[in-house]
Structure formats: C-alpha cells, structure tokens
Specification:
The structure is a single chain. 18% of the residues lie in helices and 33% in strands. The protein is an alpha/beta fold and 162 residues long. It has one domain: Rossmann fold (3-Layer(aba) Sandwich), CATH 3.40.50.2020. The strands form 2 sheets. It has a 6-stranded mixed β-sheet with strand order 3-2-1-4-5-6, sandwiched between helices. The protein has a two-stranded antiparallel ribbon with strand order 7-8. It is globular, with a radius of gyration of 16 Å. It starts with a helix and ends in a 12-residue tail after the last strand. The protein binds guanosine-5'-monophosphate.
C-alpha cells in the first residue's frame, strides 16, 4: 500500500492524519514504509460507545493541531464500517481546502456500508465480524494485541475468557 501511495505523490510531503486511537499502529507501520517526506497529525472522533454497535453519531473529540490547506493529506483509518465516520471527515476536511485528500484504511467491512464513501487505498476487505487488536479496541481493551483478532462474545456480553 505504501508503495502505491508514494507512486501517486512521489515528490509531496504526505501529511498523514491518524484517526485516534485505532489507527495508531497502522499509521506507524505505514509511515515507515512510505519513504520521502511525511508529517503527522491526529484527530479524535467518537462514533461508538462502549459496545460493538455504532450509534450512527459522529462527534469530533479532538481537532487537528495544524491547518491542512494546500497539503497532500492522507486520512489513515483503522476500519471502514458503516462509512459514517469517513463521510463526516471528508466533508470536514474538504472545507479546509487541502491540495489532495486521500483515504487509506487497513480493514474494510464492505457489506456494512451505509454512507456512500470509498477508501482510495484498502488493506484487507473483511467480513462482518467485530475485530480487536493492532490498535483496535473493545471498550479500550485489546488494542495492544499484535494481530487483528475476531472478538467472540459469550453470554451477557463478556468476552470468552471472562
Ligand atoms: P464507521 O463510521 O465506518 O461505522 O466506523 C468507523 C469506526 O468504527 C472505526 O474507525 C472503528 O473505530 C469503529 N469500528 C468499526 N468496526 C469495528 C470493529 O470491528 N472493531 C473495532 N474495534 N472498532 C470498529
């Protein structure tokens, strides 16, 4: 993915915008493969509460530190699910007039899409399962698992080994 992204913008400083917190491992690994000039910024959104289902509501919890006007911006997202978060972000960022605006996602749950949005770069399409690890959480847990794993909930919403 990094090679494909860099091929499209060989001479630009790629301004990576990580969507906190799930994208941090993906962003760190992607950034190290991009080569050339790269800068980072992060923003926070909340669309999920404590459970595994979207509330459908997107709220900005932390805005960017610097402006993106004239920059080549790459939004780095962990998962594209309903697409509501990305739709919100694209609208927000387009208003700020970047030179280019692209989207890289690690995982794409294609069948869950509600909003009409697509990533420019996709790591892996995945089925409709709730996944954790490699930055992704369930109620802030499991982000540090080195791999992406399917979360299996037992009865009463507990994870299997609880
Ligand atoms: P969307 O707005 O596309 O429905 O959701 C995007 C966000 O929902 C992702 O950035 C992620 O934070 C969260 N999300 C969606 N599916 C999953 C999942 O399977 N596991 C985890 N941990 N988060 C998910």
């Amino acid at each position: 993915m990094a090679r494909e992204i860099r091929r499209g913008f060989p001479d630009d400083t790629l301004h990576l915008i990580g969507v906190l917190k799930g994208s941090i491992f993906f962003l760190a690994d992607l950034a190290r493969e991009l080569g050339g000039e790269v800068s980072f910024d992060f923003l926070g959104v909340s669309s999920y509460g404590k459970g595994t289902d979207s509330t459908g509501e997107v709220k900005l919890t932390k805005d960017l530190d610097v402006g993106i006007e004239g920059r080549t911006v790459l939004i780095v997202e962990d998962i594209l699910d309903t697409g509501l978060t990305l739709k919100y972000l694209l609208k927000l960022f387009e208003e700020r007039k970047p030179r280019h605006l692209r989207v890289a996602v690690l995982l794409d749950k294609v069948e869950r899409r509600i909003a009409d949005v697509k990533a420019d770069y996709t790591g892996f399409p995945i089925p409709n399962e709730f996944v954790v690890g490699y930055g992704l959480d369930f109620d802030e847990r499991y982000r540090n698992l080195p791999d992406v794993c399917v979360l299996q909930l037992g009865s009463r919403g507990k994870t299997k080994n609880e």
